[in-house]
């Protein structure tokens, strides 16, 4: 099931739980209370847990999601808002073919790397010289895991769960949740984007995991070897 279909975009309760660090059952309870108050019907969905079992979840549109998190802290609200911005940006991107063979996967990784290079060239042409160094540094760090998940047809929630199960991303709750293990950062597969925001007059820091071009190729090849993506030897 595609939680982020281009038509009728929704966010699942499991994704909200992962973004906010809250227990999924508590998020489900919050959603049901809110829907009852605003007299809106439940939209049911499902997802696969870490053991591959199908579990129930609830789906919210953007208006319902913003209503839900209005009672959460500013630090949690900003995570949800940024995720919705990602979903809306993805809705305007053309769909990509899911790689079925190892050669196709390698071509996909090469195309992603080429897109990064093209973006670098555009920055070089359009950006003022003073700002160029900073902008090119952010390009080289890679793309978000949510964007990468869409290119390989796994979905962000499933990809994050798989990477935590494989000890590639951290599974500890809190600020380090879903950040890459240092081992894979050192290999050049992942990076972390740091940003600041104000919370009740206090400066706070948030972190976003990024996957590099090198990491995209490595992960696609690994998933094909493991049978997550179908493939044949070249």
UniProtKB/TrEMBL annotation:
Transmembrane segments: none annotated. GO terms for molecular function: DNA binding. InterPro entries: Ant_C (IPR005039), Phage_regulatory_Rha (IPR014054). This is Contig_80, whole genome shotgun sequence. Residues 120-223 form the Antirepressor protein C-terminal domain. Pfam families: ANT, Phage_pRha.
């Amino acid at each position: 099931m595609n939680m982020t279909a281009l038509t009728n975009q929704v966010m699942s309760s499991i994704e909200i739980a992962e973004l906010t660090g809250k227990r999924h059952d508590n998020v489900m309870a919050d959603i049901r209370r809110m829907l009852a108050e605003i007299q809106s019907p439940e939209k049911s969905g499902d997802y696969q847990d870490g053991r591959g079992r199908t579990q129930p979840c609830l789906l919210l549109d953007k208006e319902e999601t913003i209503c839900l998190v209005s009672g959460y802290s500013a630090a949690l609200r900003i995570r949800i808002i940024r995720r919705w911005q990602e979903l809306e940006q993805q809705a305007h991107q053309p769909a990509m073919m899911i790689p079925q063979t190892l050669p196709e996967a390698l071509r996909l990784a090469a195309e992603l790397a080429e897109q990064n290079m093209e973006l670098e060239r555009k920055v070089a042409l359009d950006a003022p010289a003073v700002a160029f160094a900073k902008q090119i540094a952010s390009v080289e760090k890679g793309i978000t895991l949510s964007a990468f998940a869409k290119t390989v047809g796994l979905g962000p929630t499933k990809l994050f769960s798989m990477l935590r199960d494989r000890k590639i991303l951290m599974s500890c709750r809190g600020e380090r949740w879903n950040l890459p293990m240092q081992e894979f950062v050192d290999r050049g597969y992942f990076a972390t984007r740091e940003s600041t925001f104000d919370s009740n007059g206090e400066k706070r820091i948030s972190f976003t995991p990024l996957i590099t071009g090198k990491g995209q190729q490595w992960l696609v090849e690994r998933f094909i070897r493991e049978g997550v993506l179908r493939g044949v030897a070249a």
